Amino acid sequence: MQDFGYIAAKTVSEAVALLDEKGQTARILAGGTDLIVQVREARRDVDWMIDIKSIPEVNVLDYNADTGLTLGAAVECFKIYAVDEICDAYPGLIDATKIIGGTAIQGRAGVGGNLCNASPAADCIPPLIVLNASCVIAGPNGERELPAEQFCTGPGQTALENGEMLVSLKIPAPASNSSSFYLRFIPRNEMDIAVVGAGASVTLDDAKQTIVSARIALGAVAPTPLFAEEASALLTGREVSDATIDEAAQAAQAIARPISDMRGTAEQRTHLVGVLTRRALNGAIQRIRDAA
Amino acid sequence: MTENKEYKVVGTRPIRHDGVDKVTGRALYGADFQIAGLLHGRVLRSPHAHARILSIDTSRAEALPGVKGVVTAADLPTAEDRIADLGEGAVNLKYLCDNIFASDKALYKGHAVAAVAATNPHIAEEACTLIDVEYEVLPPVLEVRQAMEPDAPLLHENIKTTSMGETAEEPSNVASHIQHKLGDPEKGFAEADIVIERDFVTGTVHQGYIEPHNATAHFNQDGQLTIWCSTQGAFTVREQVAEILQHPISKIKVVPMEIGGGFGGKISVYIKPVAALLAKKTGKPVKVLMSRTDVFEGTGPTPASYIRVKMGATKAGKITAAEAYLAFEAGAYPGSPVGPGAMCIFAPYNIENVIIDGYDVVVNKPKTAPYRAPGAPNAAFGSETVLDEIAEELGIDPLEIRLINAAKEGDRRADGPIHPRIGFIETVEAAKSHPHYTAPNGKKHHGRGIASGYWFNIGLESSVTINVNADGTINLIEGSTDIGGTRSSIAMQAAEVLDIPAESVNPSVVDTNSVGYTAVTGGSRTTYATGYAAYEAAQDVKRKMIERAAKLWEVDESNVQFADGVFSSINGKEEQISFRDLCGRLGETGGPVVGSGTVNPGGAGGAYATHIVDVVVDEETGKVEVLRYTAVQDAGKAIHPSYVEGQIQGGAVQGIGWALNEEYIYNDEGEMTNASFLDYRMPTCLDLPMIDAVIVEVPNPGHPYGVRGVGEVPIVPPMAAIANAIYDAIGIRMTELPMSPNRLLKAMGKI
């Protein structure tokens, strides 16, 4: 393991100044469940780790039924799924927080870190995309916001500029008759990285028969998690049926650009996009109907 | 379990002697070992699967502050191309040395090339990156059938196929060909009403022990070498290191630390000679640890194989002939377990006409090492799947067809030996009457499969010394690494003889200077053979204690008997003394009592298992879920039933992993792309049902309590049992391992 420096920043501006000063070989340390492993295995060259865990803004976990959720970038998974209101409002995000690593990892790892690590297979990113999450970014030139689907730019690459850091995520309050669902395919039942992941959010009409709107996102089938825009749009105003869901699943398959690797082949992944999109949509619809 | 009436200690379930230390984290493993002045060693490994080494320049590494020594193949004594017998079979010394450090060629990615000792592990790691190795990259050979092609690139210029005593003219990747023949196979197939022939492919799989290899070595000024390490056999480490370093065994002491799993993978040495070389060069103790990636890439897995099985049977289900072609990948150097595979493949059955051909083939992968019943699981995947298909075609229940053909005492195995008393029929009968076999199984995409398996087990040498304590307890000194609770199962055999509780035995696994020669913990031999030695040592103690009682009472030894823990005088004097009280009077009757037992027993007795498994297949994703699992096995006599069950469950679970997801995945350059527990997918507890272990006891006449080895045979049936269950679920015969979701989707025509 290489030598590196460690600094615990106390404020967002201090962290931003440090990032700006140290440049590309400085990394933010939050849960560390990706970063420390990458450094130990010499997969990432890091000269400075800037610990943000004592900055108040990155530890905010605030849910309001009118304004939605503010989720600090360093909030660990276990704190999120401990809040019943958040579980009820964003079940698709909760699905993801409960399958990252195991219980011990969930005590350290957070949604913000999962996003910033920018793995194409990250479990939290498709739910953030389907839930219309917005990324609050602080930098030398102040603060800006970016939709979750625009945050990742390639494997391990993000839209963060030099000196910028993710402060929090904002997720709008859920509409009535809406729900969300995330699932992944792994060959085992735990301790795996998604071969394919699929998230869906759905809003139904009051009769719970017609889709008012839907969003679908996919993981591990392209260099970044994908927002399946066309597949999502074609569901608007459609009655819930197997045929409609199949149509959306096929449209989702059409945008998948998977590779073959040790976790799965391209054909397998394209096939699974169809299966998982159907299951994610049906899962979200079932949750709306079950909520009665 | 039937109630234990015959014995007082044997067959009970005392708490294991090493249990508290292990669950409280106090047991000392190799990586825990500390000593003053310790240096840390790291190994540089070849990034290429097949390359000629043109030069190695260590000068930049040596110049790094903190580096105390660098070693390469040049530091090994010149290895001759000769055969050395190292207790677990003959080994070619040149290959043994070349596997420690590549000399002329690197033969697999991860092949050790050099090693560094430094004042801390980080400096050692950095120094490895400063060693300049010039390679001429050669095309790799990564698959057994490809390696057997006449125009395949050659790994070794000097390997020429030996076939039944003859050696070929031209070099080849096929190191050897073996053949076993019984009866007249051609005639047997002609007599069959049905003949089925299928091809099978199995992947490379690792033992997956949780503790990586480790070794700390210290060379004294007088040439005395001490090695503290994790191993399945301290004596085999001593022999291998002695051969590799050309250092006398009398000057090597190997101290076995606790072991975090081995399953066969901790018999061959890798970094132990490296630590010794670094210790010699630096004059300081040196500790070398492997990472998980090192373990996957640099140590022996069990081989991938290509297998063709042909079996013929009459309408009544009697097998008339069987034929097998087994081609096993040996890895970089000859020595795959194709031999044991050929011995086991048809061993559950009494077949008159058999022909088995086995090929040992080198490929650019790590040299294979033993793994639980080495060779037998690959072979049984083929034979047990074909037999299932025959049963199905004939409309015969799969357990029934096994009973029709079951081997029993007096029948001959195709490779020669006559079966002693064996318990195969009893395992099939127990499976048949188990509620699992008759439970409903009709749901869509649900399936049930069964398969059987055989492992021959081994005996080999073991030594035990017993020191009697004044308080009526005994200290039992042994040389067998305790992997699966053998401290207890060995102690219990001594306790039974001396009629003392298991808790009154203090077992210690000691170093090679402190106990008589003891072969490795492997071959399912430890409870059998070291237990046998403990039995003999306890008998020796009993004899000596009788002498002491006789002395005490001034009677002839023949007038003293020992029963129910009490020595008593017969014929005249009415004297009695308990074992415990007599222990307190040893000083006055002639001094301490020490008993010893040494054995090399020949009657290991084969073990059989029959497994039943239920699965459900997700038709959309190709994922197989194991719902219920019952493993029936003949243990001869279960000394400690909990640890027998543990062995059965562990073997079944490793078989489930082998069946469904475990495999080395290689890219075209011969790099393993999944060298971590993340992507080398062993089953976790969430992937498994409870494994119901059913112990059948058909006592082995070759052991005083009837013990048969139990550790290996449970990994033999699972792959075929699961393949048969998948067939029952979706009507498709899977012939390639692992039966991963991707392969199932393909087989179902979904992709």
Task: Describe it.
The complex is a heterodimer of chains A (292) and B (751). The model of chain A has no long low-confidence stretch (mean pLDDT 97). Chain A folds into 3 domains: 47 residues, Uridine Diphospho-n-acetylenolpyruvylglucosamine Reductase, domain 2 (2-Layer Sandwich), CATH 3.30.43; 116 residues, Uridine Diphospho-n-acetylenolpyruvylglucosamine Reductase, domain 3 (2-Layer Sandwich); 114 residues, CO dehydrogenase flavoprotein, C-terminal domain (Enolase-like, domain 1). In chain A, strands 4-5-10-6-7 form a 5-stranded antiparallel β-sheet. Chain A contains 11 helices and 14 strands. Chain A has 292 residues and is of the alpha+beta class. In chain A, helix 10 packs across helix 11. Chain B has 3 domains: 150 residues, Aldehyde Oxidoreductase, domain 4; 189 residues, Aldehyde oxidase/xanthine dehydrogenase, a/b hammerhead (Aldehyde Oxidoreductase, domain 3); 296 residues, Aldehyde oxidase/xanthine dehydrogenase, molybdopterin binding domain (Aldehyde Oxidoreductase, domain 4). In chain B, the strands form 7 sheets. Chain B has a 7-stranded mixed β-sheet with strand order 3-7-1-16-13-14-15, sandwiched between helices. In chain B, strand 4 and strand 5 form a beta hairpin. Chain B is globular, with a radius of gyration of 27 Å. The two termini of chain B are 47 Å apart. The model of chain B has no long low-confidence stretch (mean pLDDT 96). At the A-B interface, helix 11 of A face helix 4 and helix 20 of B.
Topology:
The complex is a heterodimer of chains A (about 290) and B (about 750).
Chain A: E1 5-8, H1 12-22, E2 26-29, H2 35-40, E3 48-51, E4 61-64, E5 68-72, H3 77-80, H4 84-89, H5 91-97, H6 103-106, H7 111-117, H8 125-130, E6 134-139, E7 142-147, E8 152-154, E9 157-158, E10 165-171, E11 178-185, E12 196-204, E13 211-219, E14 226-227, H9 229-233, H10 242-255, H11 266-291
Helix pairs in contact in A: 10-11
Chain B: H1 19-23, E1 39-45, E2 51-57, H2 59-63, E3 67-72, E4 83-85, E5 90-92, H3 93-100, E6 105-106, E7 112-118, H4 121-128, E8 132-137, H5 144-148, E9 160-163, E10 166-171, E11 174-182, H6 185-190, E12 194-202, E13 214-219, E14 225-229, H7 234-245, E15 252-256, H8 272-282, E16 286-289, H9 292-298, E17 305-313, E18 319-331, H10 338-344, E19 354-362, H11 376-394, H12 398-405, H13 424-432, H14 435-438, E20 446-455, E21 462-468, E22 474-478, H15 486-498, E23 505-509, H16 526-553, E24 560-563, E25 566-569, E26 576-578, H17 579-583, E27 594-599, E28 607-617, E29 624-634, H18 641-660, E30 691-696, H19 718-730, H20 741-747
Parallel strand pairs in B: 1-16, 9-11, 14-15, 18-19, 22-23, 29-30
Antiparallel strand pairs in B: 1-7, 2-6, 2-8, 3-7, 4-5, 9-10, 11-19, 12-17, 13-14, 13-16, 17-18, 20-28, 21-22, 21-27, 24-25, 25-26, 28-29
